[in-house]
Design brief:
By secondary structure, this protein is mostly helical. About 70% of the residues lie in helices and about 0% in strands.
């Protein structure tokens, strides 16, 4: 479908100028749409020149790559993954150590030495993680603002369609590379979203156990305070994951309701539910 040298993008369903790429979503248009208006223009002339069509289409086509977002290769997130794996192991060991000590299976002097060792290593790695999160978050914010600015400049015709698409593809490419890094760093425990409720409950139970029974095991008030503070910090760090879990569960409930009232067919309901449930299996 063409109108005033425009076609409907099959991806975003919006009108866009004829060309190789959609000016709205940046995705590549099928060749028949890219050439459609050109062929119509030829049909209205008294002496059509069919040989010129391929050349004209080629001239109208930008040379930039397609806008399809690619999943970053493993090496792009290798550094973040390694950092989180190290942190996850240390947190696991530290929590297990607390459980063993509170159960009477580890002597006080051994517990104190190992706990302080793990705590120091966790602190060093977590500082690096937080710094990376701040750096990446700031860059994502900057890129997002540039995308919005670019969109406005295009809407007021300050830049051409071709330049808009080219620049947007570059910005989207970097955003696609950075967002997985941020997601990985925001889960220092490498825990599945589905396990977040039980994990946060176990942290709360540990806090209460140390508060109530720490003194009877020989822990000093200072060390009790330190352990409780560390556990609470870990619990606070999980709040972002808790919100993600709650959001997905909320979407599942909405989906179930839409299905029960007949808005969704069974195959649509099952497909969308499976997509949401797969998100709960992610550790990022």
């Amino acid at each position: 479908m063409a109108l005033l040298n425009r076609v409907v993008c099959p991806h975003c369903k919006r009108l866009t100028l004829r060309g190789r790429y959609c000016m709205n979503c940046g995705k590549e248009l099928p060749m028949e749409l890219a050439a459609e208006t050109l062929l119509e223009a030829q049909a209205t002339t008294s002496q059509p020149q069919p040989e010129a069509a391929p050349q004209a289409v080629a001239q109208a086509a930008p040379t930039q790559p397609t806008a399809t977002a690619e999943v970053p290769p493993p090496e792009d997130v290798a550094e973040e993954r390694k950092l989180v794996e190290q942190l996850s192991k240390l947190h696991t060991w530290s929590l297990k150590l607390i459980d063993l000590f509170m159960g009477g299976d580890v002597p006080l002097n051994v517990f104190t030495e190992l706990y302080q060792e793990y705590r120091s290593r966790i602190g060093t790695l977590d500082q690096k993680r937080v710094e990376s999160i701040e750096k990446i978050s700031e860059r994502i914010k900057d890129l997002t603002q540039k995308v919005e600015s670019l969109k406005i400049r295009h809407e007021v015709n300050e830049i051409s369609d071709r330049d808009y698409i080219r620049q947007k593809i570059e910005l989207d490419k970097e955003l696609t590379r950075l967002r997985p890094k941020l997601s990985i760093l925001q889960n220092p425990l490498e825990i599945r979203l589905a396990d977040i409720p039980s994990f946060t409950e176990s942290l709360s139970n540990r806090i209460q156990n140390v508060k109530n029974n720490g003194a009877s095991t020989g822990l000093s008030n200072e060390l009790i305070s330190t352990i409780v503070q560390d556990l609470q910090s870990l619990l606070d760090a999980c709040q972002g994951l808790v919100k993600q879990h709650e959001r997905i569960q909320h979407e599942i409930k909405k989906l179930e309701t839409r299905y029960k009232i007949g808005e969704l067919k069974q195959d649509e309901y099952l497909a969308q539910r499976q997509r949401l449930e797969r998100q709960l299996e992610l550790t990022f």
